Amino acid sequence: MIDLLTRFEARDEEAAARFAERLAEVAVEVLSEPGHVSYAAYRTEEEPRTLFVLERWQTRTDADRHIALSAEGPANQQALALLVGPPHTVSLVPTTPEGTTR
């Protein structure tokens, strides 16, 4: 399994709201992508312009395919234009034993 955490910084709160709408659409779209396990979008209370996506994929290949698709298409390009810079994605590695969280 591959867990990814992506940080997005919107230009302003209006742009953040519009970007969040696009993330909600993507959440539905990824359901049909190969290797999809989970996808959830978040906004921070402290910084309303900052959004995160936490996602899980079966393999690195599945995750890489999704990342490549995320940069394509007019809807995604319009959404990325709402940001102050490119998204920043990191791969997460568990530091606690499997089964210690619910």
UniProtKB/TrEMBL annotation:
Residues 2-92 form the ABM domain. GO terms for molecular function: monooxygenase activity. Keywords: Monooxygenase, Oxidoreductase. SUPFAM superfamilies: Dimeric alpha+beta barrel (SSF54909). It is an enzyme of class 1 (oxidoreductase). Pfam families: ABM. Gene3D superfamilies: 3.30.70.100. The keyword Oxidoreductase applies. Its EC number is 1.-.-.-. This is Quinol monooxygenase.
